[in-house]
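Pasting as-is:
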Amino acid sequence: MRKESKQLWLEKKENTITVGLTPELQEELGEVNFADIAELGSIEAEDVLAEVEASKTVIEINAPISGKIVERNDKADEDPSILNAEDEQKNWLVVLEDVAETDWQQLTE
């Protein structure tokens, strides 16, 4: 199942939720030059999920939901431009676990 929130896409597979940049946010940002993605561990909704510097702007991306970051896109540290990729296997930020079902249900499909 897939949902969107705050210009991020969220895809749920079993007990994990992958979070990435929507094409709309990619367009708004322009070419990504630097990304600082949150480290593994707990994160609360509205906490900073990533800081992104791009050709058009510099933004903080806030977590759309609370959970535990169990995987982060380490490749974006070395090559932040992969966050501009159309391929969602490349442009994701983090994978979350321990997300409350009620939080997930409140997101827009």
